[in-house]
Amino acid sequence: MHKTSSLSELGFDAGDASSGFFRAVADGCPLTPTSSSAPHRRLTKVSVIGAGNVGMAIAQTILTQNLADEIALVDALPDKLRGEALDLQHAAAFLPRVRIVSGTDAAVTRNSDLVVVTAGARQIPGETRLNLLQRNVALYRKIVPPVAEHSPDALLLVVSNPVDVLTYVTWKLSGFPASRVIGSGTNLDSSRFRFLVAEHLDVSAQDVQAYMVGEHGDSSVAIWSSISVGGMPALKSLRDSHRSFDEAALEGIRRAVVGGAYEVIGLKGYTSWAIGYSVASLAASLLRDQRRVHPVSVLAAGFHGISDGHEVFLSLPARLGRAGVLGVAEMDLTEAEAAQLRRSAKTLWENCQLLGL
């Protein structure tokens, strides 16, 4: 008996079916499917800029998940960098065969498929947010153009905070299309959101569909209207079974999600493992062309009432593949959620305008 393997065999015209769910970013790639038979280089190279706690957690997770054939580490501190590279190389007998290289010069990143940027200036006590941003722009002027020159076809994934503004900075300095410049955004925030809901309902976080969008920071927006558990809308059920799920309670949960990183930093001094796994999940979707949807920082101009003239990056659910951002989901937001998102975008755009890029 012949088994149906696709909806097109049932009479549905496949065409570009995804266009009803996703829309391309302003200067990104079209949503036409890429040929699965297109030739790909056999070896995959990932470079990590910044060998601090976050950068090394990302490198280690990418290494153990066998996402790359070569990993290049770049940092301004040669001794620390050499030590981190050796520490990973000495584990070669227990890991997939991966070439690990390191250097203080961007040349070591040549021909990367994915470049993960974790480097960033730390805030000095008493320093203004604007001054910190300007110092980061100065740092990124030294990092991004050489990386773009050595790997003109790479995908750029920004992790440093403030991630939305620095993703904008990276886009401007690289000259790459917006579809190939991505910020880690609220991918981890959404995981924290899913974890809290899953713990409350005693289910796996993988069965909870919930997104934090907007800024990765204090103005992020929890999309309660679309939260689901096991495919079932969850907010009404939660409210029906728990009278305490009023607007104040929902805001308290959102604040708990936003404050999750601060709690970890207060306890151990920094965050590393969760962001490592978060970025590895993004790397897998990108490098393996998985077409998975992640809430990441993308060029949001024209979405949900954000002005076409505001070249602001913030997190929206985006379909990721080998070409980068393949489309952004057309979410059905409530007016309150959309208004919060626009306020978040306004704040970010005001910061971007001060940078003079």
TrEMBL record:
It is an enzyme of class 1 (oxidoreductase). Pfam families: Ldh_1_C, Ldh_1_N. Pathway: Fermentation; pyruvate fermentation to lactate; (S)-lactate from pyruvate: step 1/1. Residues 44-183 form the Lactate/malate dehydrogenase N-terminal domain. InterPro entries: L-lactate/malate_DH (IPR001557), L-lactate_DH (IPR011304), L-lactate_DH_AS (IPR018177), Lactate/malate_DH_C (IPR022383), Lactate/malate_DH_N (IPR001236), Lactate_DH/Glyco_Ohase_4_C (IPR015955), NAD(P)-bd_dom_sf (IPR036291). GO terms for cellular component: cytoplasm. Residues 186-351 form the Lactate/malate dehydrogenase C-terminal domain. NAD(+) binds at residues 50-55, 75, 136, 159-161. One of its GO terms (biological process) is lactate metabolic process. It catalyses: (S)-lactate + NAD(+) = pyruvate + NADH + H(+). Gene3D superfamilies: Lactate dehydrogenase/glycoside hydrolase, family 4, C-terminal, NAD(P)-binding Rossmann-like Domain. PANTHER family: L-2-HYDROXYCARBOXYLATE DEHYDROGENASE (NAD(P)(+)), L-LACTATE DEHYDROGENASE. Tetramer that arise from random association of LDH-A and LDH-B. This is L-lactate dehydrogenase. It comes from Aegilops tauschii subsp. strangulata.
